[in-house]
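Weekly structure sync, notes
Attendees: PL (lead), two postdocs, one rotation student
Agenda item 3: pending single-chain targets
PL asked that the sequence for the first pending target be pasted directly into the notes so everyone works from the same version. It is reproduced below exactly as submitted, 229 residues in total.
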Amino acid sequence: MGCRSFAITTGRTEQPDPIEVARALRRAVMARVQAILGKDRQLPSFFSGHEENGAPVRHTFSSHLSFAFEPTSRRLLIFAPHVVERRAVRHQEVEYLCTLDAALEDFCELRAGRAGVFSLYPVAITDDDPLLASSPAWKTITPYVVTRHAKEGEAGKALEVDVRAECRRLGLPEPEAVEVSNLQGVPGTGLTGDVTLRFRQHINGPLLLGRTRYLGGGLFQAVCQQDQP
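Predicted structure, written out during the meeting:
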């Protein structure tokens, strides 16, 4: 009950920006949930990612939804926090997830600003999906953004240090290897890059890491066995 997935059937043919689409998905879900709760009810941080005073939730664990656009198969994804954080679902979260399901009934269109208008339909996401599979190797399909730029001098080393800290935050084992490429310093965003993680044991997805993890950044998929060295 921790993942919701929608396929895009029509819309712009070029590849949209994953973060832009994820932000549009978040806005749409918040609006639909608010309509279920009523306009006079405070939207819980589970859906918004913000406290009652409007400040972002800053707990070690988010306890709020993560939104993503998976560019390869052009899917929209919503991940419950207990799935991302690898823990048991809480009683209150079960209630929130029921509200989410009610809000997503007949969700068939997403207006994503410059990215376009997408027609949607719900699709099942199974345990053998590349985003949820079990694998010792994982690679990003959306850019990883560092949570904070460590004073390591060299950009690749700074990104590696940040990725390892993110793995510890989620309680993952220490990666045996962290491979980084396509490093960029993006104005207003920070240091970004593509990442491949290699562990000594199999790790189950989903993996969302880095500063933009709640909006589809740092989304990893399992590396197929035949593609592993």
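Discussion points:
- Helices lie at 18-37, 45-48, 81-84, 91-104, 155-169.
- Residues 18-37 form the longest helix (20 residues).
Action: rotation student to compare against the earlier draft before next sync.
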